[in-house]
Structures are given as C-alpha cells and as structure tokens.
Specification:
Layout: E1 2-8, E2 11-24, H1 33-38, E3 42-57, E4 61-70, E5 74-75, E6 78-80, E7 92-94, E8 101-102, E9 106-118, E10 123-131, E11 139-142, E12 154-157, E13 162-170
Length: 171
C-alpha cells in the first residue's frame, strides 16, 4: 500500500506499508538426511512501513526526513554436533522451528538538511545527514546455538547515531 502527497506549498510526503507471509523450507535443497529430519518449515508474517517527507524552505534550504519500521526477523535455536560424531563432519541443525523466536521490531529515523548555492560554473549543494536520530540500539542478532549463551549473547545491534557532512558540485 502506498500513499503520497504531491509537492504543494513546498512540502511533499510519501508513505508505504507492506505485509508478507513467508512460507518456505529454510535449508533450501536438502543436502543430507539430517536436513530432512531437522529442517523446519517456516511460516510467519513480516511487515514494514516507511514515511518520507521533504520541505523546500526559502533560501534554497531543503529539510527531509525518513521514518522506517519493520518487524524483527525470526530465528530458531540451533544445535551443532561435536566434530567427529557424524561421518560428514560438524553440522548445525535446528532444534526449534525457525519462527520460534523473533527479534524486536526495528524503527529508524533519519534526517537531512541541505542548502544549494548557484555559482558561475555550476551548483553547489551542502548537506548534513543524521542517521538513527533516536539512537536506538535494537538487537538484530543473538547467539542461536544451544548452550548457556543461547539467546543471551548479543552478536549485533543497530549502528549508533551517525552524522555526515557532505557537498555535491554539479556542472
């Protein structure tokens, strides 16, 4: 679904939302009998939404913002057999269905302020971008292997707030 407000009075807006049902086998093509026994059919919903807007202010100043939100990815507990216990070597199998656990939803807000200048040889645009304005540290990956650190050891979080200054010269 998408909704838009065309440019009027120096302001435009665009919003969208999607929802998808995922139904698949996580292992893809089965490589060995353990894949058939321990691969779990995935059946879950994912959603995402985005809202973008720009205000074209006087003095060639432009202010933009993007708000993005999406559901967290599912994951399942895994088991890794000790080396040497199976003839094909160490393998990792799912101990729980992939959609048993889910990471938290992620929401990001990014902003940009820019100013354009006309020069005799072209146009210069100076920009300031700020990513993850709210400085959210949402967990995006944890240890999924069976053991004392399962679901406790954080592997990855969202990047922190980042500011970027840039310039673009068009001729």
């Amino acid at each position: 679904m998408q909704v838009s407000k065309p440019l009027s009075k120096g302001f435009d807006l665009l919003g969208s939302a999607t929802a998808n049902r995922i139904q698949q086998w996580p292992a893809g093509v089965l490589q060995n009998p353990n894949d058939a026994a321990f691969s779990n059919y995935e059946d879950y919903w994912q959603w995402s939404a985005k809202l973008m807007g720009t205000y074209h202010a006087p003095w060639a100043l432009s202010l933009s913002s993007v708000l993005k939100s999406q559901s967290g990815s599912p994951y399942g507990r895994q088991f890794r057999n000790p080396s040497g216990t199976l003839t094909q070597g160490t393998i990792t199998v799912f101990a729980d269905p992939v959609s048993t656990y889910k990471y938290p939803a992620t929401t990001l807000w990014d902003v940009r302020a820019s100013r354009s200048f006309s020069t005799g040889r072209g146009d210069l645009e100076v920009m300031l971008d700020v990513f993850n304005v709210l400085n959210r540290g949402t967990v995006t990956a944890v240890n999924t292997l069976t053991g004392p650190n399962f679901n406790r050891q954080i592997i990855r979080i969202l990047n922190p707030r980042i500011a970027k200054i840039g310039a673009k010269f068009s001729f």
